[in-house]
Each structure stands twice: as C-alpha cells, then as structure tokens.
Amino acid sequence: MNLEGITLHSLTAYLKQEVTGSRIYKIGMPSNHMVYFSLKRESDTIHFIIDVNPASPAIRLTTEAPDNPQEPPAFCMLLRKHLEEGRITRIRQYGLDRVIELEISLLGRSSQILTKQIIIELTGKNANLIFAENGKILDSLKHVSPYMNSVRVIQPGYAYNPPPPQPGLDILTVSPATIVAAIPDEVTSSLWKQLVKATTGIGKASALQLLSAANIPLSATYLTPMDRNRLISVITDLQKKLTEKNITQPFTAIVTKRNQCQTVFPYEIAYVPEDCHSEIFPDINEALCYAARLQPAKLPEQEVLQKAIQSELRKTDKKISVLQQDLSLSNDAERYRVMADSLMAALYQVQKGAASCTIPNIYDGTSLPVALSPILTPAENAQKYYKKYNKLKRAQEEIAIQLAETKEMQNYLESVEESLHFVTTRQETEEIKEELQRAGILPIPKRKTPTSVKSSPVQIIFSESTTIYIGKNNRQNEDVTFKIGTGSDLWLHVQKIPGSHVLLKTILPEPEPQALEAAIQLAAWFSKARGSSQIPVDCVPRRFVKKPSGAKPGFVIFTNQKTFYTTPDEEYINRLLQKNKAK
C-alpha cells in the first residue's frame, strides 16, 4: 500500500483532532517495524499504531492494542524511558511530503518541560520511525550509516535531516491554472507522469483519478484547451474538498483482486482500476484500519518460519552492534603504533623513571604526550606500546572477519524472510523450512519426512520467442540461474536488496524491448522494494553470474551489469502473472 501526500494531509488533520493533548501511558513494539502508543484521552483510551513496514507503511488508531513480545526490544525500552507519561502537544506534516511529526512534552527534572519528537517517515522501502530531541537523533527503528547514505545519515547523535522535498507545485494551495500551465502542450511520456512531475502531494494513483475526472483519456499525449479547462475545474474541486473544514469528504480504499489495499484516497474516485474494487469509508482512520485487516494471511507454517527468522535477525543485529563497538575500540591500535615509533626515535630525549613525556610525533611533527611506566626503560615502554598495537591489530582483523560473516548471515536471513512474502503453496513453504534446517536455524527432525516433488519457479510465456522465469525461494532462484539459465540469457535482480532471481530467455538475437521492460518490472516487484518508485534493477548476461564456493543458498556475484530504474505497475504485473505456466 502506498499513501500519497494529500492522504497524509487528511490523516494529519484527523490525528490533530483525535489525539492532541492525549497522555501516553504505555508503549509497545509488536514487531521490528511497528510501534504503538496507548493514549489516555478525556473520556477513553486509544492505541496509536505506527507501522513502517516497507510494503505498507501507515498510521492508524485502534481500540485494541497489538500483542507484545515477552522481552521488549531496546528501542521500545528507550521510548518508554523518555516518553511514557508525556503528552502529544503538536502534530504536523512536512509540507505535503510523506513525513509526520509528533511533538511530545513531559516534565523533566526541576519541573522543566521537555519536548521530544517522533518523526514518522512513510516513504515506501525507506519508511522509518525516528526519535529526536531538539533536532538531534536519539535513535531510530532503522539506522542509515554514512556508508549507506553520505548525505542523509540516520544514527544516534546525528542531526535529523528530513527527506529531500518532492519538487513541484503544492497541489492544495497553488492556483489550479498555474498547475495546469506547468504541463507541456505535448508530452513524450504519459500525461499522469507530467502531472506528478508538476506537483507535490500526489502520485500516479491520484494523477490518474484527476485525469479521469476531467474526461481526459489516460492514453492521451497532449492537452487540448478544453482538457486544460476541465482539469483546472477538477483540481479546484479537489482543493475545495480537502482544505475547507466544513466539508465532509468520503475516503476510498482501492482493493486488488488479491485482496490487498493498493491505496487510500481522501476523496470519492472517478474510476476503479482494472481487476480492483473500491470501498467507501466515512473517515481516514476506518479506511486505514480496513487496509490493515487486508494484509495477506499467512499459513501457520509461514508464521513459525517468520518468527524463527526474526529471532535470528535480532541475534545478528545485536552481534553486529557489539562487533562494531569492539571494532571502534580496536581503532586505537594506530595510536599505539605512533607512540611506539616516536618513542624509539626519541629514546635519548626520554628520562628513565619518568611517568610521562612529550616528544615529537615522527609522522606529523606535532607534540605527542605519552604515558610511561616509571619502572620500565624508555625502550621497554616503546615495546609495551608495540605489544598493545599488535594485540589490537590482530583483534581488529578478527573482528572485521566476524563482522563480514555476520552481515552476510543478516543478508541471507533477510533474503529468506523476503521469500516468505511470495510463497503460495505449502510445498514452497516446506522448501524454505528445509533450507533453514540445513542452515542450522531450525532443528532437523529425527524422523525425516518423505521428499516431495520440487516446486517450480514462475514461468511466464511472454511471446512465442521469449519466456521469463522467476524464483520464489532460494532453491528456485538457483534452479532459475544455474539449471534453466544459459550463457546468453539475461539475468536480472533488484540492486543491493533481497529479491528474486529473474531470467529472460529468448531465441531472438536481442530481447524484445517490451520483454526486457517486463523482466525489469518483475525483478523489482518480486523484491523487498516492491511498492517503491524508481527501483534500481541490475541486468547482466547469465554467463557473468557466479556462485562463490561455500556461499549460502541464493547468493551470487556478477559483473558487467547494466542498471535500469523502474516503478512497477501492479496492474501490468498481475496481467503478466496470469501467463504463469508453472504447474
């Protein structure tokens, strides 16, 4: 589910009315992407759910609190320590971006009023919840290191910088005539893309609705003067409905044939997309609660596997944190080497029995204070620092190896967890279970169950000359890449995050452009990034894909790739999947 800026505008107004002034009396964290605040209002209690699941980030109010784990995560404990008994004093949206900030005030020491912020970024795959004070990050659900993003670091101690604002004209405040004038007379891409590009606050879903309401064909490549007048009228009506307080506006949820909520509109829609139906609600919260109930139900076996994987992920996260701290401490090694080298170069200047000395740093010429043991000679003190250096250097190398191995395990677990989103049969679930048993994550049963027939990857007959294969778990991924794939086939995978192996197989000298576009969209869709926009997908001839010796299932390395960027079209994806010939 993807919520647009104008939907969050309506949600912010609703939350201001419902929870401003409420007192936080309990905080829970049911999963690694969900936090809730139990609130005391004047006449009742309510639970404020914040879900930053990349596939369906959302906020909602419920009368029932979600179940909590027996041991609350560290992030939950931090929020409890700082925010319980605080009051929500302010709620605001950053422009029309998908970012909402809660301002929470509470009494500190000496009866001082402290103000802290919960910043909710509902931005698809990068969705996050950030805890800050006076613009400084105290912690967040997801950390973004300088190595991951040098421009926007999200880690404790760093200043909070919001996501870059979407360029364009404010769809709710700028003159409709000005907005429509920003759309070129003739366009080389879809009209909806030009409307999204010209504005801020809407995405593809609302752009299509506005064009449809203005009776403009969705396939049109230009706007006539009459089209422009009708579009101005439609945008004027939208602004009136969403900004005037005395107008009660219905909310519309779009539900796919797979019973998943695609989006929620803060208005009555002009048309229902193909293979979807709509549901009307009196307020935004009812629509979002309905959307949450539509999350695809997992088989009991999938729930067990999900919990096992999440348990292992918590362990690896904790281990990575400890190793990173140890690595930081071991970085003192170089300082000890500099001291030792400088001491050896200045032995004649150091008085025997001294507790300290200041000598020239032989590398930069600055003064270097050095602590000494009075019972050792200057040369023995230098040797002591060499020993410290060698010990820390060895530790540093060992920690770096452990850290790399643990991160590899983390990536592997995330890839298996992602596979669970795509399984549709018990057979596929059983294969993931067996993989986890082989990896030592699940116990191997004493009585081995009979081996069932292997599940098949998705097979899409795109045309008489072209077939596309998609792996839905790591065993299928390896079959797609190394059993079905040959040297000249094209292999695709979403860049740097978990996803399916996709293979484009054709008898033509070059793949059809439409087939390549389909394969790119499928690689983005069958990944952790589904639901996001401008997803990078790597494409490479199969001969450049290798599996390193001893690598975990599904892990490959490749070279000579080209990177394409795509925003998957769910309707198009569903039409492609109807061509699935896998039995």
Q: In words, what does this structure look like?
A:
- The chain is α+β, with helices and mostly antiparallel strands and 583 residues long.
- The chain folds into four domains: 5-165, Roll (ibrinogen binding protein from staphylococcus aureus fold); 169-293; 302-420, Helix Hairpins; 458-577, no CATH class.
- Helices cover 36% and strands 23% of the residues.
- The strands form seven sheets. It has a six-stranded antiparallel β-sheet with strand order 17-18-20-19-21-24, sandwiched between helices.
- A hairpin with a 5-residue loop joins strand 6 and strand 7 (113-121).
Any idea what the CATH architecture of the largest domain is?
A: Roll
CATH homology-level superfamily of the largest domain: ibrinogen binding protein from staphylococcus aureus domain
Distance between the termini: 29 Å
The major sheet is characterized as: 6 strands, antiparallel
Strand content: 15-25%
Count of the separate structural domains: 4
Q: Tell me roughly what share of residues is in helical segments.
A: 25-40%
